[in-house]
């Protein structure tokens, strides 16, 4: 029996849907002008239509990147392979969103693990984002998810209360002035014998070129010892993901 597909929501919809709508309006206007105009107006209409199709198509392509059902498991496999999760009873996934990272890491989690999925759970970035969707996608992957609304820089968990903390493609969205606080929070809630796993994009502050060294340094500055590092090629864009496993120093 085929497994049910996941739905992870539509990313960056607030920026891209208006562009698609604007392109559709321009295309409609160009069609009307072409039907009613003379030779010159028709030539202009063709140019406008071509531009609208290009801009609308580009926005639609970006709207579906990543596709709402896609996982791109390679990057999660890379992170899972360098983490020691076989004894993890309780895992915190920071910035879980609709559950994509939880589903990606599910094969690395032992049976019976509870994942606390923390996220603001608003739709500013992901259309459809919410605790119910995170819980649903986790269940499809065989993972018990307990969603918690919260802020990465002020985690609503007790000190040392989880066996592992993961943060996948999320901390680059934390404002730079609050980023150190977020990393300190990862360290605070992780048990002394636990592990922190980071998966990040090649995004760094201005003037910083080496994203691997940057994200590694963020963990070390928070009092964590980096144990293993892996990089994974991005399938559709330049640069690499970096996966880092660190333990409390």
UniProtKB/TrEMBL annotation:
GO BP term (any one): methylation
InterPro entries, per the entry: Methyltransf_25 (IPR041698), SAM-dependent_MTases_sf (IPR029063)
Domain named Methyltransferase: residues: 91-194
Record flagged with keyword Transferase: yes
CDD domains in UniProt: AdoMet_MTases
Keyword line: Methyltransferase, Transferase
UniProt-listed Pfam families: Methyltransf_25
One annotated GO molecular function: methyltransferase activity
Protein name: Class I SAM-dependent methyltransferase
